[in-house]
């Protein structure tokens, strides 16, 4: 079956935040759209909301008034569900409740054409169980848009056990024609994005719980070293802690309480206090009028007359740091070794998931200062360091001075395994690896979903490959040893790739 042509009428049931957005997307693509909501006036209000947003585009000269009028004419609010009967595609975006959605699907089956595709925008209900009560479950497919639907490119096309492959292909091709970036996923809890993204929040929350650093510092590192649009605290303040905590709990329970998805006590406290984020005026940060965002912890400038850096072996993914130091006028002396920098008293190395304190003892190198992963060491403006307990004050001063000479703001965090960006990226890749291993999606679709759905700077699997075969596996193995927790167990796929000396894309 090819993509649906624009002659095909589309119905959207539920005219809330998502339904109205989806109706706009389908109408913009040229379809006639029936918009229905059981709440009186909600469908009209949904259309009015679209009109208001798009009128601003017209006022700015970014859209023709004629095009807007035509688009609004294509969105037809309907009071009675039976009026959607001639639709070729019906997308439900009603309340997230299994029984109510099942009831709606039964009504739709009774009144729609036999060849009509029924799609659900559910975020957390199994497409398989939604289809279980249907006469023809083959025609039900997940079409999971992201909020706000007109702006977010990703659509997860979710196949339940009974979903007809041709139906899924039609929805995939149709979403692509609508200008979206579709990916396929099997019906598993959280599909791709809501599952693979859990560590993005969880690792930052855990670092705060362990007093590694404050939220403002961790957020700054995620942005300035990790190239993420937002850090976990500012993002969860925006999403709402009630919503984010509920998704985490739902995924945690759906995976039989696998500790990989363990919810955070820190976040639970916020929810209990009603500190839900922006919408309540208080989350990790205050949103009261006049409130200022706290500054990230940044080491004071250090002076050093030292001008020579000894580079021992390859720094692997951090090699661009050496170029930056050279460009800053430092004299670089290269010699054999296992990937570290010597400057004054300091010995600097990229984290491998061990505590700095433990690694210093194991390697007989007291003045060890670990630095974190950066998305791109040539561009990063901030980097985290963690010093071994044994390190001298002078060694820490020298480490700061060196990184500052390269133009980096330095945030010193407490000595925790894998620092900030490395442990987050390793855990994201770990979850992506398991999602692929368990047949949820292809490697390319997992990476695409994380980029298009959450604006990650790179897919976690491609990022993991870029770190070099085996590095993510080693980091996770070391973090797991440090904590002695199952939460950090590496995926079998990372283990296999490590011993095969290959990546996800190789
Ligand atoms: N909000 C998000 O970020 C988001 C993202 C992706 C998917 N989703 C999913 O989309 C769906 C809708 O979410 P939302 O945020 O738009 O909710 P919402 O509460 O804003 O809107 C739901 C609408 O459905 C209507 N409704 C409820 N039962 C109905 C029925 N039986 N028939 C017709 N209309 C009915 C309600 O009156 C309401 O207007 C849910 O399944 C949700 O999980 C939400």
TrEMBL record:
GO molecular function: 3-hydroxybutyryl-CoA dehydrogenase activity; NAD+ binding
Pfam family, one: 3HCDH
Domain 3-hydroxyacyl-CoA dehydrogenase C-terminal: 190-287, 418-499
Record-annotated 3-hydroxybutyryl-CoA dehydrogenase reduced Rossmann-fold domain positions: 348-417
Keyword hit for Membrane: no
Gene Ontology biological process terms from the UniProt entry: fatty acid beta-oxidation; phenylacetate catabolic process
Residues covered by the 3-hydroxyacyl-CoA dehydrogenase NAD binding domain: 9-185
Annotated keywords: NAD, Oxidoreductase
Coiled coil region boundaries: none
Protein name per UniProt: 3-hydroxybutyryl-CoA dehydrogenase
Organism, scientific name: Marinobacter pelagius
Lineage: Bacteria, Pseudomonadati, Pseudomonadota, Gammaproteobacteria, Pseudomonadales
